[in-house]
């Protein structure tokens, strides 16, 4: 069975009334379907489920719509068939609920709404309940919030004061990392903080949730040695910083399988946990339930969870695994729409010939030697090429899902050249900067009518005049390199902004490093 990229799993909080009475697989039969049901959230009274359904014919944008919010209610014996949540909660983008406040009167939504009708992944929103139903969402501003990924997953804590979410942004250790933002005494949300290297890897961490007491985080990752593509892990918070966590523990074979398990949530008062797995699913991801037992971290536990869909057992294929090989697979996506696109992906290790593969909408797959560091070029006509690094020297997986978001070539598109680096306090380029700069050269050659504007940024250490001067010199150095490769200087403008446009605070070295960057913006096509 083919599984779509980043299928967001389903998790339910079940009321004590359900748990104590006839809670079983059949109560959810009307919720699961051949469609892709995701990200359910239960109201505090346990009577309403908010579910995201992807590519449904009745979504706002029909079968092209990446996800709308649908609503199911408890009728005393089971959950009713979901009903579309309406045009106020939904638009042409991905719509999902992060949580509901304890009084049941506010929905926290996982994106921003705008006049274009396309939901953005650049923040969160709130819809307030009235006698007429849920009101038009209001965008919530979070300082320095940015997400370059085409989707967002997250969870609002039970007290409504902590938002934990996944994002690809400045400072991410790999692709999608987990971040925390907290509601402050004045009602505003704090600047997001990365949860740190104990939680986040160079690969993808997704679908976070917090236990009711806020001390345990659950999340899915494909960057650790697990049973399959994405496994679910738990970690305990060691202090109040939310950046100091215990080493994550795999929840074990009673939950994790060869498929992908996502969006685990624990409802401890009723002793219930729910999550989604693609193994033996009737569509994409189906709901799995653990009833009346806490989640186990014992990988030898074999007690199966209750399955909320008819199981059709598929024979397992015997597979010979070469311990020296890692299979890399994934999709190339339009960063704006989330659609799969065709692309060429090139992998280069210092001591090897360049390996090349192509991606159709269904994705790509390639086998690489485990003990190598690869540079990756991703190219597609009509999109800005991407340059990444992949370190397989310490990876203990037989296969790894690696997805890339490419930005379409449009006026106003801004690209962060995160691998363009300088010697400290100088405009001198470091040698590792040239591969990404060469991609910019190729982009300019392939699009001879494109004009760009370079922007140089620094942290806040130093005088205003010194920082402005340094950032301008760095812009000039990048422009000189592009011109030396044959790009007409009239197509390139540039400006240094010093430390006037930070994307993070300057309190720590990691945050200052995020602010030291060079970007380019497409000014003309």
What is the strand and helix layout of this fold?
Blueprint: H1 16-20, E1 36-42, E2 48-54, E3 68-73, E4 83-84, E5 97-100, E6 106-109, E7 124-130, E8 133-134, E9 138-140, E10 154-156, E11 162-167, E12 177-182, E13 193-194, E14 205-210, E15 216-221, E16 231-236, E17 249-250, E18 261-267, E19 272-277, E20 286-291, E21 306-307, E22 325-330, E23 332-334, E24 343-348, E25 355-359, E26 364-369, E27 373-379, E28 386-391, E29 399-401, E30 404-406, E31 414-416, H2 434-446, E32 451-457, H3 464-484, E33 492-496, H4 509-515, E34 517-524
Parallel strand pairs: 22-29, 23-30, 32-33
Antiparallel strand pairs: 1-2, 2-3, 3-4, 5-6, 6-7, 7-8, 7-9, 10-11, 11-12, 12-13, 14-15, 15-16, 16-17, 18-19, 19-20, 20-21, 22-26, 24-25, 24-27, 27-28, 31-34, 32-34
């Amino acid at each position: 069975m083919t599984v779509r990229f980043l299928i967001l799993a389903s998790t339910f909080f079940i009321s004590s009334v359900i748990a104590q009475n006839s809670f079983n697989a059949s109560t959810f039969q009307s919720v699961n379907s051949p469609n892709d049901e995701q990200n359910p959230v239960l109201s505090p009274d346990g009577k309403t489920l908010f579910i995201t359904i992807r590519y449904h014919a009745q979504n706002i944008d029909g079968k092209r719509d990446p996800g709308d919010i649908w609503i199911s209610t408890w009728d005393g014996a089971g959950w009713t068939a979901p009903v579309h949540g309406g045009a106020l909660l939904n638009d042409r983008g991905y719509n999902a609920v992060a949580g509901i406040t304890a009084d049941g009167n506010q929905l926290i939504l996982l994106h921003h709404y705008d006049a274009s009708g396309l939901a953005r992944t650049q923040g969160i929103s709130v819809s307030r309940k009235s006698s007429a139903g849920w009101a038009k969402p209001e965008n919530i501003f979070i300082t320095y919030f940015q997400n370059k990924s085409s989707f967002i997953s997250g969870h609002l804590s039970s007290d409504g004061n902590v938002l934990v979410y996944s994002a690809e942004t400045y400072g991410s250790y790999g692709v999608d990392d987990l971040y925390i933002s907290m509601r402050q005494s004045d009602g505003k949300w704090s600047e997001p903080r990365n949860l740190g290297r104990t939680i986040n890897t160079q690969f993808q961490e997704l679908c976070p949730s917090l236990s009711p007491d806020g001390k345990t985080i659950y999340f899915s990752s494909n960057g650790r040695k697990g049973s399959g593509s994405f496994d679910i892990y738990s970690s305990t918070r060691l202090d109040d910083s939310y950046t100091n966590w215990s080493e994550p523990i795999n929840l074990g074979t009673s939950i994790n399988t060869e498929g992908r398990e996502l969006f685990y949530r624990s409802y401890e008062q009723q002793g219930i946990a729910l999550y989604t797995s693609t193994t033996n699913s009737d569509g994409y991801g189906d709901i799995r339930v653990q009833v009346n037992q806490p989640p186990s971290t014992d990988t030898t536990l074999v007690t199966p969870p209750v399955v909320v869909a008819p199981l059709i057992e598929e024979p397992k294929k015997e597979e010979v695994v070469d311990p020296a090989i890692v299979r890399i697979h994934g999709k190339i996506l339009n960063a704006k729409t989330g659609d799969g696109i065709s692309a060429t992906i090139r992998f280069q290790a210092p001591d090897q010939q360049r390996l090349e593969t192509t991606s159709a909408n269904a994705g790509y797959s390639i086998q690489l030697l485990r003990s190598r560091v690869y540079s990756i070029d991703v190219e597609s006509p009509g999109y800005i090429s991407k340059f990444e690094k992949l370190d397989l020297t310490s990876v203990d997986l037989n296969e790894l899902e690696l997805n890339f978001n490419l930005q379409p070539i449009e006026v106003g598109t801004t690209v962060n050249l995160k691998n363009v680096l300088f010697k400290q306090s100088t405009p001198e380029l470091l040698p590792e900067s040239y591969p990404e700069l060469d991609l910019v050269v190729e982009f300019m050659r392939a699009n001879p009518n494109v004009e760009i504007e370079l922007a140089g940024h620094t942290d806040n250490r130093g005088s205003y005049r010194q920082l402005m001067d340094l950032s301008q010199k760095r812009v000039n150095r990048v422009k000189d390199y592009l011109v030396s490769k044959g790009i007409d200087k009239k197509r390139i403008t540039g400006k240094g902004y010093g430390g006037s446009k930070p994307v993070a605070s300057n309190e720590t070295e990691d945050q200052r490093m995020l602010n030291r960057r060079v970007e380019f913006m497409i000014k003309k096509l």
